[in-house]
Specification:
The protein is mainly α. The chain has two domains: about 40 residues, no CATH class; about 70 residues, no CATH class. It is built from seven helices and no strands.
């Protein structure tokens, strides 16, 4: 939740949209806001590239608006994940999650190995 509501503007948007304060409503509003931010206010590619070179875990967290830990990052790397792959996946599907990106990278890697 903190990665999605990382500015005062986003916190205010959340407060304005939430009607019922229960688990389901909070989850639903956060999910909608996350997709809205990924579509309309994504991290710029140049910022993502720079941040990825310094701290790839933080870069992936901001790029996918998800909490990414070391294990997630190693799964991404083992699947053949890279800056270019993340950017390509994002351009094809802006609301793709990191788990979906890892699965997609594994499929791409499997197809590439099969062709060799």
């Amino acid at each position: 939740m903190q990665i999605i509501l990382n500015t005062s503007v986003r916190c205010n948007q959340f407060m304005n949209k939430i009607i019922n304060v229960n688990y389901y409503s909070i989850f639903q509003v956060l999910y909608e806001l996350k997709n809205e931010y990924l579509l309309n206010d994504p991290i710029p590619v140049s910022t993502f590239k720079h941040l990825y070179s310094i701290n790839p875990i933080e870069a992936l967290s901001r790029f996918y608006l998800e909490n990414v830990d070391t294990l997630d990052y190693w799964e991404w790397k083992q699947a053949g994940g890279s800056i270019e792959l993340a950017i390509n996946f994002r351009s094809a599907n802006p609301t793709l999650t990191l788990i979906e990106a890892i699965e997609k990278a594994e499929r791409v890697r499997g197809i590439t190995k099969a062709l060799k």
